[in-house]
Amino acid sequence: MNEIKLTCIVCPNGCELIVGKKEDGSLEVAGNLCPKGVKFAADELERPVRTFTGTAVTVFEDFPVAPVKINREVPREQIPSVARYVNTLTLTKRYAPGDIVEENVLGLGADLVATADMRLEES
User: Fold this and answer.
1) Looking at the domain 53-114, which fold is it?
2) I want to staple 110 with a disulfide (CB 3.0 to 4.6 A). Which of 27, 44, 53, 70 is the partner?
């Protein structure tokens, strides 16, 4: 049985997993301190997904870049494309945390949302 080493990223334990495939095709996972490690290993080998966080340029001198994220996990191989796309954006509106900046980024079913309050404070 070929073994693969993974570091679980689901909880703060950061377990070092050793994953192998049994003859019947099922996975054998060792090293996990909680059940989440087994699911993480299966998902990581069959359908790895990630979230994206980054920054987008704005037109505002007082807020030159704004932190953004996608609101759901997408296939891991799409993350570089999402990053390249976000780097092409220039935000011309002030957003509140959670506001949708772009819907359905690259057709992935994930929206790009603001994660900081860009709105001007009223005096």
Assistant:
1) CPE0013-like fold (3.10.530)
2) 70
